[in-house]
Write a structure and sequence with these properties.
Order of helices and strands: HEEHEEEHHEEEHEEEHEEHHHE
Structural class: alpha+beta
Distance between the termini: 79 Å
CATH topology of the largest domain: Beta-Lactamase
CATH architecture of the largest domain: 2-Layer Sandwich
Shape: elongated
CATH superfamily of the largest domain: GAF domain
Number of domains: 3
Number of helices: 9
Number of strands: 14
CATH class of the largest domain: Alpha Beta
Radius of gyration: 31 Å
Length: 415
């Protein structure tokens, strides 16, 4: 619940009145000062608390300043002073309408700019009211979870969403444990009323909760009951003031490309009746995490390929000032069919290579890189630009890309 005495005040209301003798919005002289005084912040807070919609106000730094009672009840993490990013489904960069989920129900938030430094978000259920049905709520939760988990292919954002979406519907605290390099494990955690946290620890963390090592290694295929081991370090799973959990459930995370990992759910009360939905949620989380992992690997491979094909930095040559701007035709990748290189000699001269593969994209960039590497390999045995330009044999350069053509030239500078 919001502490109204510590909640920051709302910008004071406009001191304008309207009468028959003055147009609406015109300031009227002679009005007693008592009728122009601003209303206390506590009154505005009480007014917000009577609203049917959830209301959240943040400042220019994306710090939450005002929270209505309905917003605080539905999203306990929305408190004055916390960052909006990562709370209640917000990423912190939204400018337009946002959809989040709460207890399996989608919520739509609409922003209204109050002034240069304050934005108010009004939230309401995105679905028409209907009689409560536990199975229907679980189905809506899974559907919305799948949509939100699949909305990002960034690994960090996917892990953050996995632990956040599970709270409070499935547990009061959710953690994901994954293998890391050098025999360590990586963990992500989110607790009701806390922040998303991330860290790495030794594999002894797998012995801190019963059944965790079994689920992590892949020898288990279904949710397992777990209990914290007395004396074990649990700061990766529970907040210091969490207390003894009423129940702990450990679920393996398995999917194509994801060989090890576990989802750990801790609650203050027993939630044994939710094991089916927990298993379903873990499967969807594993699929989303596997997709994000595959995308990250492909992105790293593409970045490595791009780096190998990018032009080298221009060297210093006496008497010459170089300047270059490299802009590929496709914005999706940073390389294309245009290429250039400068090869300085020890005698002060330099060889300048300029070429254009007639095409674009990865195929053109690959052929351009092959030409650059071939010319660089031939320079120790051939220094004459004309002979060097014609020495590479077309089959060596083109390979199977017979549909591509190129045009290039070489310039040699004098000492």
């Amino acid at each position: 619940m919001v502490d109204r005495h510590s909640a920051p005040g709302i910008p004071e209301p406009a001191r304008w009145v309207a009468t028959r003798s003055a147009p609406t919005g015109t300031r009227v002289d002679g009005i007693p000062l008592s009728r122009q005084e601003t209303v206390d912040a506590a009154v505005w807070q009480a007014l917000l608390d009577t609203a049917d919609k959830a209301v959240v106000v943040h400042d220019g730094r994306r710090l939450v300043r005002v929270v209505s009672r309905r917003a605080a009840e539905l999203f306990p993490d929305l408190r004055p002073g916390v960052e909006l990013a990562g709370v209640a489904g917000f990423t912190g960069s939204e400018q337009n309408e946002v959809e989040t989920t709460c207890q399996g129900v989608p919520w739509r938030w609409i922003p209204t700019r109050l002034d240069e430094d304050h934005v108010a978000w009004q939230g309401d259920s995105a679905e028409p009211a209907e009689p409560w049905c536990e199975k229907c709520a679980q189905a809506r939760f899974l559907v919305n979870s799948s949509r939100l988990l699949g909305s990002s292919l960034r690994r960090d954002q996917t892990l953050r969403s996995i632990v956040q979406l599970a709270v409070p519907t499935l547990a009061d605290c959710c953690a994901v444990v994954l293998p890391a390099k050098r025999g360590r494990v990586e963990w992500w955690r989110y607790s009701r009323g806390g922040d998303t946290e991330h860290g790495r620890m030794g594999q002894h963390v797998l012995r801190s909760v019963t059944s965790l090592a079994e689920a992590f290694s892949g020898s288990a295929t279904k949710p397992l009951p777990g209990q914290p081991v007395p004396g074990a370090r649990l700061d990766w799973l529970l907040e210091p003031d969490f207390g003894d959990p009423g129940s702990v459930v450990v679920v393996p995370l398995r999917h194509e490309g994801l060989d090890a990992g576990a989802l750990v759910l801790a609650s203050n009360d027993s939630r044994d009746e939710q094991l089916d939905i927990v298993r379903d949620y873990a499967g969807r989380a594993a699929a989303a995490l596997s997709s994000a992992h595959s995308f990250s690997e492909q992105a790293r491979a593409t970045e490595a390929l791009e780096s190998s094909l990018l032009p080298s930095p221009l060297p210093e040559v006496p008497g010459i000032v170089w300047s270059a701007c490299y802009r590929p035709a496709h914005s999706g990748i940073r390389v294309g069919g245009d290429f250039y290189d400068v090869y300085p000699d020890s005698d002060g001269r330099a060889l300048f290579l300029l070429g254009d593969v007639c095409g674009n994209g990865v195929e053109a960039a690959t052929l351009a890189g092959r030409i650059r590497h071939t010319v660089e390999a031939l320079r120790p045995v051939e220094t004459e630009p004309t002979k060097l330009l014609h020495r590479p044999r077309p089959p060596v350069l083109y390979g199977t890309n017979s549909g591509l053509s190129l045009a290039n030239c070489m310039l040699s500078t004098g000492a």
